[in-house]
Amino acid sequence: MNHPPHPHTDTVRDLVGIGIGPSNLSLAALAHPLTELDTAFYEQRPRFDWHPGLLIEGARVQVPFLADLVTLTDPTSPWTFLNYLRTHQRLYPFYFAERFHTPRAEYDTYCRWVADNLPALHFGHQVDSVRWNPEHDLFEIDFTRLDPDGQAAALGRTHTRNVVLGIGTQPHIPDALRPLADAPGVPVIHAGDYLTHRDTLLAAGHITVVGSGQSGAEVFLDLLRHRPTGRERLHWIGRTEAFAPMEYSKLGLEHFTPDYTRYFHALPENTRDRLTAAQWQLHKGIDADTLAALHDELYRRTLDGHWPDTVLTPGVRVRTAGRIATTRIELHLEHTQQNTRTRLTTDAVVLATGHRERPLDPLLAGLDPYIRRDNSERPRIDEHFRLVLDPSITATGSNVYVQNAERHTHGVGAPDLGLTAWRGATILNTLTGKETYPLPTRTAFTTFGLQQSQPRVPTARQAPTLTPLVDLR
User: Fold this and answer.
1) C-alpha dist (Å) from residue 357 to 346, 402, 409
2) What's the whole-model pTM score?
3) Residue 299 burial (C-beta neighbours within 10 Å; 0-12, 13-18, 19+)
4) pLDDT at site 2
5) Cβ atoms of 178 and 26 closer than 8 Å
6) Mean of per-residue pLDDT scores for the chain
7) Is residue 245 helix, strand or coil?
8) Can you give the pLDDT at residue 326?
9) Residue 453 has pLDDT above 80, yes or no
10) Contact (Cβ atoms closer than 8 angstroms) between residue 373 and residue 185
11) Is the pLDDT confidence value at 465 over 80?
12) What is the DSSP annotation of 12-79?
């Protein structure tokens, strides 16, 4: 089947979003009252789902409820979390619960409520390609409409002046464990699929959790709570030098503000890369309450005078892995500080090894000649979340925006839910060329650097640039 030819009478949209995760869902909610904009958002999944395999009972969102889809930009929006509670007659129970951090499952339900009520969202639509049509100065987007079984039902094409990519992340599986994770019938699963396979995991004799971040802690705690005292048979290993708490001090959290994002963006590329690696504890550590709950559960199991049958060892990496006979798994481990090696035989492995940004290149192959790249061949992204493209595109006022794919240019706050509404408002202000959503000029007590960039609202036709630092004296 071929996609239909370019129809000259086709409706030209102002903005087409690809992917419907929290970032593009926030953008769609903020764009909804802007009647001057014609928008559409496409997602190949049949409905909104937010990490369904990690909606473990008791797991909380690690940002306050004010970091919903819209509140930090527009608290009067009908799509706030508080309005979701009011609509479902749950505002008073929430008030008396005195919760600042909500259960992860509740955040997922809230987002689905928003998604179910926004008309511009199109689920079951797989975007196949994005191209620039220089004859018409428009982006062409080819997509496949999927049936309920995920099979191709029809092909389509839409045209737009602007594109926003919000394709999210994908599970990261270390190379050493990929052959086992890909093999059918081998109980090596990513934590993102944990709840789907929990019953199978709990039936295993010995379970190993790999990964020392928040998801590793939550999976280990859940397994521990469901294993009998004295017969836990659990290992937990991770590469970090400790099962470290996440940085959650009030000034530390100012790294997740627009002020820090602008400061980070203005730094040299090599400095940004060094900082990204060094700041892991800002976003890869473990919530202090989760660590406390883990310790409480382990301590409870010592009340009979014995230690639980668990091993928790940080500073360990998996060198290689293989199968023993048909049912067991052998992990070849190395302790990075001791420079020692050993082998661990286990019956099941949960890979709490995080998620990585989905690469943009496969989707944007048709735009590759127009994309400007940095020294590491990554797309350059300006302070307003626009890909730096060839002037032949940007001079027409058309742009490609990105969400949650800009950590290398915008820092640790790129995937943070607390910056989602601000980023969406920044995109809409840039797109409309006016202050559609007034944004704060200062958001942190910390002054990052001796010089600091100032926020500005460019016109829609203004080409993406790097804003120079200004002297605050």
Assistant:
1) 30, 11, 13
2) 0.92
3) exposed
4) 45
5) no
6) 92
7) strand
8) 78
9) no
10) no
11) no
12) EESEEEE--SHHHHHHHHHHTT-TT--EEEEESSSS--S-GGG--TT-B-SS-TTSSSSTTT-TTSTT
Return d(Cα 180, Cα 100) in angstroms, integer.
40
Classify residue 78 as exposed, middle or buried by CB count within 10 Å of its CB (0-12, 13-18, 19+).
middle
Q: What is the CA radius of gyration of the chain?
A: 24
**Cβ 457 vs Cβ 434: under 8 Å:** yes
For residues 377 and 358, the answer to whether their CB atoms sit within 8 Å is no
Q: What one-letter code names the amino acid at 80?
A: T
Angle, nearest 10°, between helix axes 214-225 and 288-300? 30
Q: Which residues pair with 208 in a beta bridge?
A: 235, 349
CA–CA separation, 199 vs 186, rounded Å? 15
Nearest CA to 44 among 76, 83, 82, 17?
A: 17
pLDDT band at 463 (very low <50, low <70, confident <90, very high): low
What does the pLDDT look like over 341-353, one tens digit per residue?
999 999 999 999 9
What is the pairing mode between strands 39-43 and 15-18?
Answer: parallel
pLDDT digits (tens, 9 = 90+) for 297-349: 999 999 999 999 999 999 999 999 999 887 899 999 999 999 999 999 999 99
Tell me, what amino acid is at 27?
Answer: L
Residue with the two structure tokens 């992860």: 104
Answer for the pair 155, 145: CB distance below 8 angstroms, yes or no.
Answer: yes
d(CA 16, CA 21) in angstroms, rounded, equals 14
- Residue 202 has a pLDDT of 95
